[in-house]
Amino acid sequence: MDLKTFFRENPSVALAFSGGVDSSYLLYAGLHYGAKVKPYFIKTQFQPQFEFEDALRLAKDVGVEITVLEKDILKIPKVVENSSDRCYHCKTALFRMLNERALMDGFSIMIDGTNASDDAQDRPGMRALKELSIRSPLRECGITKAQVRQLSKEAGLFTWDKPAYACLATRIPVNNPIGDDLLVKVEKAEDILFKMGFTDFRVRILGDSARLQIPVSQMYNILEKRDEILKELSMDFSGILLDLYGR
User: Fold this and answer.
1) Contact by Cβ (8 Å): 44, 132
2) Are 190 and 222 in contact (CB under 8 A)?
3) Which CA distances in Å does 191 have to 180, 186, 197, 219?
4) Please, what CATH class does the domain formed by 3-161 belong to?
5) pTM for the full model?
6) Residues near 94 by Cβ (< 8 Å), separated by ≥ 6?
7) Percentage of residues of the chain with pLDDT beyond 90
8) Does domain 179-242 have CATH number 3.30.310?
9) Which residue(s) pair with 239 in the sheet?
């Protein structure tokens, strides 16, 4: 099956839309093939502001309006505990919310941007998708991440080369409770580094310190901007560490 066939067989769908590479292309493709696609974005403490802004921009580019929902994800104990299956509990809560709203809006099919490169065995969240009968057209059609990027580039989508981005909760070690204060510090630190010109990096929590995972090709910039980085990040962290393995 290809996407054209998928959307011909499913002409009216709700889309869990993040503004990332995969869901952005899926939104474009569905509209391109004549389907009625309604994108939903859920704002939680796990999504940084730039992701929301990218989602709004992409939706505007393709001429649709996003329905924005809000969820206090830190009110779910199993999520705050941050065990190895945190993503399962998070996805379950979010997609239940999406399904309920989509049904109210007249959509019986919910889709998401999981692609054929995603390893189901390494993603507890994908178990939640299966249990809630969420369809993943890219995965069903065998479309990989690399193909999504190429197709997005051909379609003129600005997201085609957007770095992969995992939610802010992934910056906190497993079994360390997640608090709003930590998430705010991580988002602030990553925003600072992004504005300094760094890309495709992570700021991970290690005790009271920030561990910077920077692509090896960008590490020379760390030394050039060392003083500025220390000045900015030391306001929130007792130590600033560099992961020499890189990202």
Assistant:
1) no
2) no
3) 16, 8, 10, 17
4) alpha beta
5) 0.91
6) 16, 42, 44, 71, 73
7) 91
8) no
9) 209
